[in-house]
């Protein structure tokens, strides 16, 4: 229609001089050639200052050419992302209740602090053993529900039963056995649930989507800690854990009802499910994948892993021993201690999505560094000024700063290798963070047994944060994708990305 109007316009132009008639004739003949061209190769004519003769011989851009030079980033499906977040809500509620009350149960059974640290680190050992194995399996499984959701349908209800057994166990061996079973089951479903989001989310939108997922996880924390603290005061640990188990199962029911995996991952009616076997070599390659990086990228990658390991070492001590610090050093009861943690979850709800926006706007590395620095300044006086009335304020402020780190860390780490290495980078991300979280509780447990107090956990955390912050400048540089396409720094979230979904995305590919 635009071409016909152009031809009509050329025919209606007044031509008062021979030169004008010649120009109009040339324009009309050019328009006629455009109309006669095949429809599938017509696009906007190229602008040029060349002579009419040269212009007539120059080919116009084709549709195929413009398709390769124009990239439109897909938009984030918020409804789908929030629905997937129910899976993270179940996981977060389960672990919040576990971390708040299981150390108290173990100390009630007179378990030494160092052993408490080892027991509380079992789930992190599962993080780099059971978790990658189930990640591989979920890539290959095909059932009527899809490839990811069946793991949640199996593991979450069974883990809910184990959580209730932890509270009901009358002695140390049964309690530890229930804890181990719980940790294994929760690690079974974590990677598949996490992989639901990147399966259907464009790479350029994953920081925002990760903020939404963490927002839903913070809601799970509030339900577990707020409701759990009230129930613990009135009814004890057994009913508290039973209520937590109910929240876990309810969240998975909502996930299953609201999220439908793509058709290529679901079997047809009356078609048998596909349950593949995973050999040792395949498991090893998933737990410690091979990387194809140049020397500079490999150096940066090792630095990033060390940063993740160090700040996780610091945060894990506070996460594991916060309620014991409140009950042992400050004289609070367990219900009040876990109630103080609610404010950590509330600030996570409020700041999870803004933290993703900050990472997108100012850079992920800069946002993480700012969060770590402010956390160090806030925690420094706590060993000497810590009081029960300060804990809610401390938890709220630390939750804000921790969201700045947590929301941006995974996308920052995985972006180094580009989209083709996202799954591999994420597997290493979990390896580094799970390693730090597995070692730290036992290490600080030894420190606590030597000093007799939990208040030094704040300085212990500051040491981990400071070492991580010191290494951050050495993790800069250019990623392979950024240097080849856009020329922007790899820790910026707004780097243009070429996104596609081919049905082969790895189970760890959240970025």
UniProtKB/TrEMBL annotation:
<feature type="transmembrane region" description="Helical">
    <location>
        <begin position="238"/>
        <end position="259"/>
    </location>
</feature>
<feature type="transmembrane region" description="Helical">
    <location>
        <begin position="426"/>
        <end position="447"/>
    </location>
</feature>
<feature type="transmembrane region" description="Helical">
    <location>
        <begin position="78"/>
        <end position="98"/>
    </location>
</feature>
<protein>
    <submittedName>
        <fullName>MFS transporter</fullName>
    </submittedName>
</protein>
<feature type="transmembrane region" description="Helical">
    <location>
        <begin position="209"/>
        <end position="232"/>
    </location>
</feature>
<dbReference type="InterPro" id="IPR011701">
    <property type="entry name" value="MFS"/>
</dbReference>
<feature type="transmembrane region" description="Helical">
    <location>
        <begin position="453"/>
        <end position="475"/>
    </location>
</feature>
<feature type="domain" description="Major facilitator superfamily (MFS) profile">
    <location>
        <begin position="80"/>
        <end position="480"/>
    </location>
</feature>
<feature type="transmembrane region" description="Helical">
    <location>
        <begin position="390"/>
        <end position="414"/>
    </location>
</feature>
<dbReference type="Pfam" id="PF07690">
    <property type="entry name" value="MFS_1"/>
</dbReference>
<dbReference type="InterPro" id="IPR020846">
    <property type="entry name" value="MFS_dom"/>
</dbReference>
<feature type="compositionally biased region" description="Basic and acidic residues">
    <location>
        <begin position="491"/>
        <end position="504"/>
    </location>
</feature>
<feature type="transmembrane region" description="Helical">
    <location>
        <begin position="110"/>
        <end position="130"/>
    </location>
</feature>
<keyword id="KW-1133">Transmembrane helix</keyword>
<feature type="transmembrane region" description="Helical">
    <location>
        <begin position="304"/>
        <end position="328"/>
    </location>
</feature>
<keyword id="KW-0472">Membrane</keyword>
<feature type="transmembrane region" description="Helical">
    <location>
        <begin position="175"/>
        <end position="197"/>
    </location>
</feature>
<keyword id="KW-0812">Transmembrane</keyword>
<feature type="region of interest" description="Disordered">
    <location>
        <begin position="481"/>
        <end position="511"/>
    </location>
</feature>
<feature type="transmembrane region" description="Helical">
    <location>
        <begin position="366"/>
        <end position="384"/>
    </location>
</feature>
<feature type="transmembrane region" description="Helical">
    <location>
        <begin position="151"/>
        <end position="169"/>
    </location>
</feature>
<feature type="transmembrane region" description="Helical">
    <location>
        <begin position="340"/>
        <end position="359"/>
    </location>
</feature>
<dbReference type="InterPro" id="IPR036259">
    <property type="entry name" value="MFS_trans_sf"/>
</dbReference>
């Amino acid at each position: 229609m635009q071409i016909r109007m152009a031809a009509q316009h050329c025919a209606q132009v007044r031509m008062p001089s021979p030169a004008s008639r010649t120009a109009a004739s040339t324009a009309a003949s050019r328009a006629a050639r455009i109309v006669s061209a095949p429809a599938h190769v017509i696009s906007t004519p190229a602008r040029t200052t060349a002579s009419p003769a040269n212009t007539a011989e120059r080919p116009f851009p084709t549709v195929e050419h413009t398709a390769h030079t124009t990239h439109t980033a897909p938009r984030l499906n918020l409804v789908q992302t929030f629905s997937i977040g129910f899976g993270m809500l179940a996981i977060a509620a389960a672990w919040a209740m576990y971390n708040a009350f299981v150390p108290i149960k173990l100390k009630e059974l007179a378990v030494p602090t160092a052993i408490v640290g080892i027991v509380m680190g079992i789930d992190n050992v599962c993080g780099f053993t059971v978790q990658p194995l189930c990640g591989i399996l979920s890539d290959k499984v095909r059932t009527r529900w899809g490839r990811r959701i069946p793991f949640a349908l199996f593991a979450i209800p069974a883990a809910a039963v184990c959580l209730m057994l932890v509270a009901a166990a009358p002695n140390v061996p049964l309690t530890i056995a229930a804890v181990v079973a719980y940790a294994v089951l929760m690690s079974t479903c974590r990677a598949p649930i996490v992989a639901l989001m990147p399966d259907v989310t464009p790479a350029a939108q994953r920081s925002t989507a990760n903020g939404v997922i963490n927002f839903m996880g913070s809601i799970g924390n509030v339900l577990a800690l707020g409701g759990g603290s009230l129930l613990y005061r009135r009814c004890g640990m057994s009913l508290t854990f039973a209520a937590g188990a109910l929240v876990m199962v309810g969240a998975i029911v909502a996930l299953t009802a609201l999220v439908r995996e793509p058709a290529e991952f679901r079997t047809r009616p009356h078609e048998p499910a596909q349950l593949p076997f995973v050999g040792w070599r395949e498991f090893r390659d998933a737990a410690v994948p091979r990387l194809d990086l140049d020397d500079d990228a490999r150096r940066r990658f090792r630095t990033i892993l060390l940063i993740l390991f160090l700040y996780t070492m610091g945060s894990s001590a506070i996460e594991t021993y916060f309620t014991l610090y409140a009950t042992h050093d400050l004289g609070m009861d367990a219900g009040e201690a876990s109630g103080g943690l609610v404010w950590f979850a509330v600030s996570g709800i409020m700041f999870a999505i803004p933290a993703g926006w900050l990472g997108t706007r100012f850079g992920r590395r800069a946002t993480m560094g700012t969060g770590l620095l402010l956390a160090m300044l806030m925690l420094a006086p706590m060993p000497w000024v810590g009081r029960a009335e300060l804990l809610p304020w401390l938890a709220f402020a630390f939750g804000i700063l921790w969201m700045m780190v947590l929301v941006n860390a995974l996308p920052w780490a995985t972006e180094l290798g580009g989209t083709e290495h996202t799954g591999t980078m994420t597997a290493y991300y979990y390896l580094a963070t799970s390693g730090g979280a597995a070692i730290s509780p036992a290490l600080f447990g030894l420190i606590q047994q030597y000093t007799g107090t939990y208040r030094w956990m704040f300085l212990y955390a500051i040491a981990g944060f400071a070492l991580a912050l010191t290494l951050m400048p050495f993790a800069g540089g250019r990623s392979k994708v950024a240097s080849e396409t856009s020329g922007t720094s790899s820790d910026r979230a707004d780097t243009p990305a070429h996104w596609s979904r081919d049905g082969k995305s790895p189970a760890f590919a959240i970025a």
